Amino acid sequence: MANELRQPTPATRPLLERRKELRALDSALTGLRDTVDGVPQAPRGGLLAFTGPAGMGKTALLTEARVRARAQGFTVLSGRGGEKEQGLAFHLVRQVVQPSLASMDEGKLRAFLGGWYDIVAAALGLVAAPSGGHVPDPTGVRDGLDWVMTRLAVTKTPVILLLDDLHWADVESLTWLASFAPRAVDLSLLIVVAFRPDELPLEAAAFGSPSADLGNRPFTLAPLSATAVARIVRDEVGEQAEDAFCEECWEITGGSPFEAVELSIRLGERDLRGTREDLPTMRDLAAAVKGPGLIERLQGLGTTTVRFAYAAAVLGQAISPELAARIAAIGSTAAAEATEKLRAARVLAEGRARGETLEFLHPLIATTIYRSIGPSLREGLHNSAAEAVRAAGLGQAAAARHLLEVPCEGSAEAVACLREAAREALHSGAPEAARRLLNRALQEPPLPEERAALLHELACATFLIKPTATVTHLREALAEPGIDPELRASMVYRLTQALAHTDRMAEAATVAADEAQRAAAHPRIRLRMQADHFVWSAFRTDEVDSSGRSRKLARLADRLPGRGPEERYIIGSRAWDAMMCGEPRQKALAYAEKALRGGLSWTHENHGFEVPVSVALVFMYCDQPRRAEELFAKGMAECESKGWRGSHLALGQTLSGYIRYRRGCLAEAENAVREGLRIADRVEGAVPAQWFAIGILIQTLLARGRVVAARRLADTYHYGDVIPNAVIYPDPRTVYAELLLAEGRPDEAAPLLTRVGEWLEGREWRNPAWCPWQLGLASALSRSAPDRAVRHAQDAVKRARDFGAASAIGQALHTQAEVTGGEAGLDLHAQAVDQLQQSPAAYELARALVGHGAALARDGRLHQAADRLYQGLEGAVHCGAEGLAARARRELSAAGLRPLPLRYAQTDTLTAQERRAAEMTVGGHAAPVVAKELHLTEEGVRQLLSSVYRKIGTDAAGLAAALETFPRPRP
Fold it and tell me: Is the pTM of this model over 0.90?
């Protein structure tokens, strides 16, 4: 039998016409075992989906899966969506996880969840949501749930996860499941889901169609044939049932397994024999299985029983008889009698928590009964349910879901319940659920003195999912009279953040400035607003009086000792501004160090993380990348510990990659930035983080010589087509111009860089370490306007020297050397190398070495050229700059020098001594140095290298002769 009863008995009612589905189930279970017929294999999980309209036997298949999995010793976890529980955040997830973890005390639970305890424990319903503190973002909670499920799959392997009625699952559970499901393939975890395809929400759309990522093909359950229905009928009434009778049973049930089974049971209860004379009775019984006939049958059980059934339908899943009795306003004896009647009528059955709860035999029955309740009575029952649930101590969230079904009455108690439930949802990482609850509380409505605070809570709930709505709510809240100054400051801070996140930097800066003037009577709040004003002004691309703002910031920062966070944020903003304006690096570093005394939190409740990030990057631009990395590691760990794994983590990951790029660790940089972009892509509203990641990734790909990949990335994200209103670094237009130059399109790059220069000059941002637009423009003009190119390069060198970072000076000198040429150019090349050797910019040093070597080769100084080119080649390989390494080899070949193949170290024919000699030669070391380390004469070195080159197929004559004249390396 293929019915969809909640408690089928597969041993006595076999599943009919489901061979294909059962074979797929057996195959999937086999894939979970680590041996098959004694042969070891790698366990492989995946997804199995059964779909079909109500009554097609989906639950029966999941029940069979449970039986077969347990028979093989597998761990079974399960959950079921509920039509009335869709608004309860993480309801499905809690059903799955709680049985495994709820029995643990806090110590064991903390040990199991580890660092994820504070992030996911509330979402899993294992602890009460905290009353205050940081709110985890949905991405962080989903990552935590990934970890928990992976841990369960590993510790309880093999695991089968059964999820029924997925179409009714809550949004938060569905969103997590859709992102986690592809990982099951790599675990010993089989996910089996069942759902009605026409009711599947958008969040679960991935389960409704074939998917390579999920490794599944949904099985659509077909209605039973007339033969199968006849078998079901004869199993109940006997083999004497006539064919015509069975045929009409099939027609009247439409082949629905649920209806066929229910009808056959009733036929058996009436002792019918399945003859032509029994047809009228059969039709009456079939009509009573669902729809109006079911309600008519229910009403025949008595008013008290009907009222109890109504209360049960309002409660939904896992029905407590005591709660249902209280809602129905009947005594315990009457409730027990009603329960027995409804069980006998196959309306209710024993719940999964045996002896404690009830549940409807089938969702069709629950839905039919619920929809038959008149509107007024239904609202009254939900109102009673909210009171009963609160009184039973089941939590505000459980009560609030009933309040969503009742009319607004201006109840202060209802508002309090809804706000508390929203707080729980928000601290569980479910802002959408919080938004629904707070919107309803606002409609109640609240008391006038509570309205501003409620609007603020609503704005916080919508910030991560709809920042434009946050702006609307906060403007409305700020218009309310008599707001507490601290609350008002929090509102303004959140408003400026929302404006900034929606690319409205000018409005954000203006709001903060206006509020600073308004808060004159509150010095600390005034400082806080001034700090926000300076931050958002610095990130505006259209700031009118940038220099005036810089002067005000400098005067204010110099007066502040840095005692509290407000003062430190202002001093940190001053450090960033000093760096951007190209003031001496020691001054910028001094401000940065002062801002860090006492700490700069990345997750402060009333301060953004823009200033801490900027301060960390000041160290990077000032040639102290290790310090910057330390600050980023600490800040990102702080974000992750609070469950902030969305745009904060995306930007932190991306900028960590940027630091590695500036150090010349290009492969590491690419991996880090790609991970940052991946996180940003999956987080709603993380557009600024995407801008950062795309620009840095393009720069990294260009440095690696992957121009085609950089172009593909730019086109995919339409990079270069849109100019954001926020300041992004590296500057998007400058990065796009670098791409154009790499593609050999200087005529297109030059006007773009000219506009960037005009914009930066207007702001007095003159630090080439932050934006080397002049260097790009000099390169673009080197052929069409060489004099202008030289002037731009010279000015960039001057600005770099004023700033004082060796990396910036060396990079500018290298460009000046390239556009100058001749003997003067050679001297500039040497200066560039000298500067970059004092900096952490390994890739720029390799570029300068190759550039110097190429210039020397063109001037005929081959021995010196070889020294530079070999060092540049070694540096390029070390950095992962394939394009630069290829250029070095070309330059060596053009100079008549054979570059040592890069794979010599993998050549098994070389001895250890030969390999070391080859490494030193590639590094450009002279023969005496090689001889000293290897304890050989110079003649011995020559013979050794001749052997090396002979073994790896490279002519040694030219290099062997050149070894004697190589200059000794500088100490």
Answer: no
